Amino acid sequence: MSEPSIPERLRTMPDEPAVIERLLGILSEDQRKVQVTVELSNGKTHPDLELVLKSADGKEISRTTILENLGPRLSFTMHIRQADVKFPILLSCQLTYLDEQVYSEKTFSLEKA
User: Fold this and answer.
1) Which of 11, 64, 85, 112 is deepest in the core (most CB within 10 A)?
2) What is residue 22's three-state secondary structure?
3) Degrees, nearest 5: CA angle 106-16-39
């Protein structure tokens, strides 16, 4: 018995694409986690979201990819596993509908408490 093939993911640009209205990051007291909130202008489309945390020296310290996000608001935690992170940390979010074509982007800077 053969396994069924997975159909290729087809992406199209919606008539009313969402943009990132708000990006927020809150650093935990132990400075090992970031509570991330992304708010979109339209919750009816299903964009992909790519979120990256970078230290002040430009090193990537965490990355999250969300495929076909549902809804206008998303909250989750990103973990920092690297020791001795240089601050400020930059949180960036890119929203795409078509592969490799950024439609909306925001950044947020996190300072050490």
Assistant:
1) 85
2) strand
3) 35
20-38 pLDDT per residue, tens:
999 999 999 999 999 999 9
CATH number for 20-110 (one of 2.60.370.10, 2.60.40.10, 3.30.1330.10, 2.30.42.10): it is 2.60.40.10
In tens, the pLDDT along 60-79 reads 999 999 999 999 999 999 99
The H or E element containing residue 33 is strand 33-40
Listed in sequence order, the residues at least 6 apart from 49 whose beta carbon sits closer than 8 Å to its beta carbon are: 38, 64, 65, 66, 69, 74, 93, 94, 95
What's the token pair of residue 100? 């490799």
Task: Give the full edge-to-edge strand order of the sheet including 48-54.
Answer: 60-66, 48-54, 89-98, 101-110
Is residue 97 within 8 Å of 20, Cβ to Cβ?
no
pTM of the model: 0.90
